[in-house]
Amino acid sequence: MSKGKRYDEGPKLNITKVFAVIIAIAVIVMFIFMIKGLLTKEDTKGKITSESYFVAYKDNKWGVINSQGNNVIDTAYAEMLIIPNNKVGVFICTYDVNYETGEYKTKVLNEKNEQIFTQYDKVEPIQNKDKDNNILYEKDLLKVEKNGEYGLINLRGKQILSIQYEDISTILGVRESLKIKKDDKFGIVNSDGKVIIEPQYKDITLLGDDNKSGFIVKDETEKYGIVNYSNEKIIDIKYDAIEKIYANDLYIVTIDGKQKVINKNNEDVLTAGFDTIKQILSTKENAVIYTSSNKYGIMNLSGDVILKPEYDYLKEAKTGTFIAQKNNKYGIIDIEGKEKVNFNYTSISYNDKADIYVAEGENFKADILNNNLEVKVSGILIDLNDTKGYLKIKNDEGYKYYNFKFEEKQEMEIYPNRTLFLSKNEGKYGYVDKSGAVIVDYIYDDAMDQNDYGYAAVKKDGKWGSIDNKGNIVQEPIYNLDEYLLIDFIGRWHLGSDININYYNQL
After folding, report:
1. Residue 170 in contact with residue 185, Cβ under 8 Å?
2. What is the chain's Cα-based Rg?
């Protein structure tokens, strides 16, 4: 927000200018309040606010709390409430569930506990899962039903897809693209409600992670092909199956029970010498990862073996670098099979945005490697945030932050708006402010960083509790959370044990 101009003092008072300034200030103030209103509240009964909301669980009942830990919807529901977007006061309640028939009813409440979107017979969230099996929701879409037909609205209640479809469903692992069904045929609609592919196929799914990669389609003859975003044919609809494996205009198809590699002209490129194709490489060799007798190897498109099939798993992380598994351990090799990282790890993953490798060993300890495959830091990886560009490690010295160049950073550099910063002294944890002054004495056996809502989890005598943004105790340490993967508090509520559904508990 701009502060406005500062006027130099004059030798005398100019009444005309005074009134002009007063009017200008009044207009600016009104404008600021209008903008603030638009930013913090967007009308309709499902209004958007600057508040955050979380599912709450207490005494075997479900409700909703806000980011101050206050009740928004009392914990009175037998079924867990769904919050598609925790910045929006729209909560979906399921009730009158018949577990034998699978029938149930839904209603939608806002942050005032008012029922909204009552013009529909049923309103449901659009649920999906990511590659790690975490539950996800489309953040601004709801599926609505009226008289047995389905459409889409956004969280403000605006209809963005007309109610005329037999069903609307997700594509596993893909967000912002949905399958629509009409007259027993399937098509695709995007998150803006635009129909990308009209319902005309017996089945349809995305080839890759988004609309840009194209769509695998099935026709009435049970054959598969590929079309692009404009529904133009890329691969003829004549194959028994098409894998979600593609690169360099090459595709993996199955016909007459046998896989093969074809190009976009439907010409055979590789047809023999393998059991299955697992990946098309980005290397200049134009090669593929293949399996033979359940072992992984690499061959080029002429069928010449580059790397013998002797690995239990193989995946190209980046050009010429491969994550491999043998004897139940993971390492990194080059395309010729030369070991770049020894096979000492229980898992290895590569983060493309950060351009780093995470190699995990026993007891969650990880080595973090740079793109030259050098171990730069070690410890328990707490967080890898490729949006803010940092990773957080816990080791014997406590919690450490690093950027992706592995330069150590202070927490206050990454989160300048926080008021408390975790500090360790003589084996105990406390908190300091930005100047380094101790705000919370070093009395805790363990502790967590302040979260986005101002709370921090603290551990004493084996039990966890919480403090607020001024260091005051909000919840005395009474919770044994040793079996929990993540420790976090909103007021007196602690994060539940099942982090996939992200709810908060209280005794």
Report:
1. no
2. 28
**DSSP 3-state of 486:** coil
39-94 pLDDT tens trace: 433 333 334 345 899 999 999 999 999 999 999 999 999 999 999 999 999 999 99
Give the Cβ contact number of residue 11 at 10 Å.
4
What distance in Å separates the CA atoms of residue 389 and residue 353, rounded to the nearest whole number?
9
8 Å CB contact between 358 and 364: no
For residues 330 and 313, give the distance between their C-alpha atoms in angstroms, rounded to a whole number. 9
Q: Closest by alpha carbon to 206, among 171, 241, 156, 232? A: 171
Q: CA 125, 129, 134, 139 torsion: positive or negative?
A: negative
Q: CB of 334 within 8 A of CB of 340?
A: yes
Contact by Cβ (8 Å): 246, 207: yes
- Cα–Cα distance for residue pair 232/226, rounded to 1 Å: 9
pLDDT tens for each residue of 429-441: 999 999 999 999 9
Beta-carbon neighbour count of residue 102 at 10 Å?
7
DSSP per residue over 403-431, as a string?
ETT--EE-HHHH-TT-S-EEEEETTEEEE
Mean pLDDT in the chain? 88
Residue with tokens 């034998």: 100
Here the tokens at position 211 are 């609309």
Please report, for residues 11, 112, 425, 471, 487, the alpha-carbon distance to residue 441 in angstroms, rounded to integers and kept in the order given: 55, 40, 10, 9, 20
Q: Specify the range with the lowest mean pLDDT, choosing from 32-41, 138-147, 450-459.
A: 32-41
Strand order in the sheet with 493-495: 71-77, 61-66, 53-58, 503-505, 493-495, 489-490
Residue 470: strand, helix, or coil: coil
Checking if the pLDDT of 174 tops 60, the result is yes
Q: Which residue has the higher pLDDT, 299 or 22?
A: 299
**Beta carbons within 8 Å of 362's beta carbon, 6+ residues apart:** 346
Does residue 31 have a pLDDT over 70? no
